[in-house]
Specification:
This protein has 225 residues and is an alpha+beta fold. Strands 2-1-3-4 form a four-stranded mixed beta sheet.
Length: 225
C-alpha cells in the first residue's frame, strides 16, 4: 500500500464521499447476506449497542446530513438514542436500505460543507469496522477504504489542531503526519499497523495489538471522545 496522495496536502472535497461509496459497496452486500439473528449481536466497540443499533445510528446520522437537519444537540448521545428508538419498529432490511441510500447521497453534501462534516464520514467508516468485528468478519478498520480513511483522519486531526503525531506504519511506504504542530515541541511517535492506529484515534479496544507509542497517552489520540 502506498501513501494516500492527499494525506499531507489541502482538503480533497471528494474524499469523504469516495470513502463512503467504497464502504457501501462492501458493507451493504455483507449485511444483506446475514441472518436477522446476527443484527442482535453485541457491538463490543460500542458498549450497550447491538449491530442493529450501530447501523440504525449510522443510517440516521447520514440521513440527517442528506436532509440538512442539524438542530441543536444533534449527534449527542441523547439524540443518537432517539434515532435508534425511532427505528425500533423497522425491519433490519429497512435499516440497511436507509443506510445504503444515505451512504450514496451524503458525499456531495459533505463535499459542499467545507470540511465541517468530514468527521461524520470517517465515523461512518469506523462504525462499519465495529459491525465487521461484531460479525466476526475480517478486515475491521482495514480493507480497500483504508488509504482514504487515513487521508481523512490526517485532515480531520489537522483541522481540529489535534495532538501532533508522526506515524511510521507497517502498511504505508511513507510516514503519516497527523494533528498540528504546537510550538517547538516534537511530535508524538507511533510505530505499528494502520488498523491499530485507527482504533486508537477512534477510542476502540487495542488489547493484544503490537505497537509503540511515545510522547502521548492512548486516550489523548481519541478524536471522538
Amino acid at each position: 500500500m502506498t501513501t494516500p496522495a492527499d494525506v499531507h496536502d489541502v482538503r480533497d472535497p471528494e474524499l469523504p464521499g469516495r470513502l463512503l461509496n467504497a464502504e457501501r459497496e462492501v458493507l451493504i452486500p455483507l449485511l444483506r447476506a446475514r441472518a436477522d439473528a446476527d443484527f442482535a449481536l453485541p457491538a463490543a466497540a460500542c458498549p450497550g449497542w447491538t449491530v442493529r443499533d450501530v447501523l440504525a445510528h449510522c443510517s440516521a446520522a447520514l440521513t440527517r446530513v442528506v436532509e440538512g437537519r442539524f438542530e441543536e444537540g444533534v449527534f449527542s448521545p441523547a439524540s443518537n438514542d432517539r434515532d435508534i428508538a425511532e427505528r425500533a419498529g423497522w425491519t433490519n432490511a429497512r435499516i440497511v436500505d436507509e443506510l445504503e441510500r444515505a451512504m450514496a447521497e451524503a458525499g456531495p453534501v459533505i463535499a459542499k460543507a467545507g470540511g465541517v462534516l468530514d468527521a461524520i464520514a470517517l465515523g461512518e467508516w469506523v462504525h462499519a469496522g465495529d459491525v465487521r468485528e461484531a460479525l466476526g468478519e475480517p478486515g475491521a478498520y482495514a480493507g480497500g477504504g483504508l488509504p482514504d480513511a487515513l487521508a481523512l483522519l490526517a485532515h480531520v486531526t489537522r483541522e481540529k489542531e489535534h495532538l501532533w503525531l508522526h506515524a511510521d506504519l507497517d502498511d504505508l511506504d511513507e510516514p503519516l503526519r497527523l494533528g498540528a504542530a504546537a510550538g517547538d515541541a516534537p511530535p508524538a511517535r507511533y510505530i505499528g499497523d494502520a488498523p491499530t492506529l485507527v482504533r486508537l484515534y477512534s477510542g476502540r479496544p487495542v488489547s493484544g495489538a503490537g505497537y509503540e507509542l511515545a510522547g502521548a497517552r492512548e486516550g489523548e489520540l481519541n478524536i471522538f471522545g
